[in-house]
């Protein structure tokens, strides 16, 4: 069973991560905290959890529960999931209400437009984290590149692309 100190550390870290996650794209900071700083999980668990979150219905960061379950079992998963989603859900409801009232104001339009480059940068950082922990040779890079092009240029279901990439990777011995 996880110690109270570990549960408290996870609650505070995952509350902070939840509050700074933007559209669920905060994989680079999660890697820094979970893999590099605390050494709670290896990079492969982070990448596998993210991939699993992409296939499952619901928010892709349901993988948070997977990560903490691997670290501290059920109690840790419950504490971290509550910390990650609870404050953010409350804050999102309050901001949505404010946004609905003011969405036609010039400051709101400027704010929305200013967040677009930030979101793109966070998604690029997430891509780099996944690439570093998942692609180790030219065959893996080729599979990842083909999957990217398929998702970008077609409307193929992402779950099918992930499944096909996994099968191809298994067949070639990755």
UniProtKB/TrEMBL annotation:
InterPro entries tied to this protein: CHR_Transporter, Chromate_transpt
Location within or outside the cell: Cell membrane
Top-level taxonomic group: Bacteria
This protein's record includes keyword Cell membrane: yes
Principal location: membrane
Keyword Cell membrane included in the entry's annotation: yes
Swiss-Prot/TrEMBL keywords: Cell membrane, Membrane, Transmembrane, Transmembrane helix
Pfam family, one: Chromate_transp
Membrane topology, as annotated: Multi-pass membrane protein
Transmembrane segments: 77-100, 107-129, 135-152, 157-173
Similarity comment: family membership: Belongs to the chromate ion transporter (CHR) (TC 2.A.51) family.
Name of the protein in its database record: Chromate transporter
Organism in which the protein naturally occurs: Deinococcus antarcticus
């Amino acid at each position: 069973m996880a110690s109270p100190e570990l549960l408290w550390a996870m609650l505070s870290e995952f509350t902070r991560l939840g509050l700074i996650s933007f559209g669920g794209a905060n994989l680079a900071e999660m890697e820094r905290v979970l893999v590099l700083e605390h050494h709670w999980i290896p990079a492969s668990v982070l990448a596998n959890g993210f991939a699993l979150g992409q296939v499952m219905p619901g928010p892709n960061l349901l993988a948070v529960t997977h990560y903490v379950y691997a670290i501290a079992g059920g109690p840790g998963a419950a504490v971290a999931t509550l910390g990650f989603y609870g404050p953010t859900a409350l804050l999102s409801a309050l901001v949505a209400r404010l946004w609905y009232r003011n969405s036609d104001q010039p400051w709101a339009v400027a704010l929305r437009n200013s967040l677009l480059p930030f979101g793109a940068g966070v998604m690029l950082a997430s891509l780099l984290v996944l690439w570093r922990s998942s692609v180790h040779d030219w065959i893996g890079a080729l599979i990842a590149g083909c999957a990217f092009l398929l998702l970008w240029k077609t409307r193929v279901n992402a779950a099918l692309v992930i499944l096909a990439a996994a099968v191809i990777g298994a067949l070639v011995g990755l």
